[in-house]
Amino acid sequence: MTISRKDIEKVAVLARIRVDEEQVSALETDLGNILDLVDQLAAADTANVEPMAHPLNAVQRLRADEVTETNQREAFQAIAPATENGLYLVPRVIE
Amino acid sequence: MQWDVVIGLEIHVQLATKTKIFSGSSTAYGAEPNTQANAVDLAMPGTLPVPNEQAFRYAVMFGLAVNAEIERRSVFERKNYFYPDLPKGYQTTQLERPIVGPGYVDIDLANGESKRVRIHHAHLEEDAGKSLHEDFHGMTGIDLNRAGTPLIEVVTEPDMTNAEEAVAFAKKLHGIVTSLGICDGDMSQGSMRFDVNISLKPKGSETLGTRTETKNLNSFRFMEQAIAHEVERQMDILEDGGTIVQETLLYNGDRDESRSMRTKEEANDYRYFPCPDLLPVEIDEAFIEDARNRLPELPDARKARFMDQYGLNDYDAGLLAGDSKLAAFFEEAVSHGKDAKLTANWIQGELSARLNAEEKSVAESPITGAQLGYLVVRIADNTISSAGAKKVFEALWSGESDNVDAIIDAKGLKQMSDTGALESMVDEVLAGMPDQVAQYQNEEDPKKRKKMLGGFMGPLMKASKGQGNPKLFNEILVKKLGG
Questions:
Q1: Do A62 and B53 touch (CB under 8 A)?
Q2: Does some domain include residue A26?
Q3: Which of B105, B118, B229, B418 would be B157's cystine partner, CB 3.0–4.6 Å?
Q4: CB count, 10 Å around CB of B43?
């Protein structure tokens, strides 16, 4: 499976990552290799294999129900592209 | 053509934990936007979720309360979709191994019969944030305080056949989760949200029809209306030879109309897969036993107790026991008021009517259970008439005073029960109405006599300035008039 320049540019926009021309070429190769590996994995016969939820043979630790977080809205909103009245602003969503 | 209606419900129940399901952010309602949204809730890179033990405890308690199997090893999946109020780009939920397996709830119907509604499963998941679509210069505002609030989603089998059954189930479930104390049950704040799946099939047919899903109903009344609306819509289409499109609808209760959110052709592929950030959660027997020990009295048991302990009938007991706050109010009132039937009548009559009229829940009632109890005492011991009791109720409600006896004194509502004084009033009034007295005494029909007796009550109440005990007046009248 291959990935096109157009796909990479689109994903970069969606992920809000700035990618220049040279990087796109390198990513084309790198991401292509990863997808090839996925193709290889997908070819394996897994008919009789029980799905594994996690590679570690461990169970989840649970947390006590206590408030440990404080309000850090200002710090988080400092890096947001647009905010108003404490809200994050995003391009209008039409339901 | 006659049709069978098939209804299944999905209910989102917000758990009353102090913190979110995967982070230590507060879940308190009504905070300033985004002040309770931390790095985990905002999906900042490098963060890892840690599940809240209390959310599991509540889910297990719910499972035990609805006679369900508890999954000893549950797994979280990612449900992928893009929406700005879901910063991670996926909802962490459970698909293959939900914490609560198959169970059931029995509901009481108006015809006195009981019906079993099966629960397919219930799973733990996180809530999304809120999108505010008011105009922010052509943009949408996002508040992520709700993002990560723990939910259990309860999925029923399609066992209900009309709106009455669906609403009865919804109310029963509301009673169960509020009695358990795992949800505050405040539907106007979205603490419980109902999705209704509806399909029609020709009467007696085994094959299910195409269903639609009406989402996010947040009151029992809207739920009833939405079901009626959707059944009628589908019936019209089918009767005209059309076909139902599988779609998701949003119901607008204020306008009694629904609109399509999306159809199956555009249905999302959620690309579920096990969440690599979370290990499987194992629940051991000790945890389940601990949850079992925390189970309080549930609506069914409470109803049986109300019938037994207070001598209430099936209907009164079911109504008062169904809601934990109403039940607590009743028990507080009856502990002071003694007369259980009279207390039940006042709660279901005057109090419920006023609460409904002002869209208040029983928890917001300006009258306390104890106050209603004292009022009932004064009605039962004949200190005040029922007309006087309504005036006392009014004064308590408006906050004029919080003391029943003080109100009775201040308003002069105390009934006159001094037999001697009442007798002389009766003598006086009868002396002034010789024609009516003669008419009464010549009447043979006891029914008509009883009616004529009422004719003397008006003047008597006037003579006593409304304070004469009507019951005593009646007894004296009958005696004086000769049976």
A1: yes
A2: yes
A3: B118
A4: 15
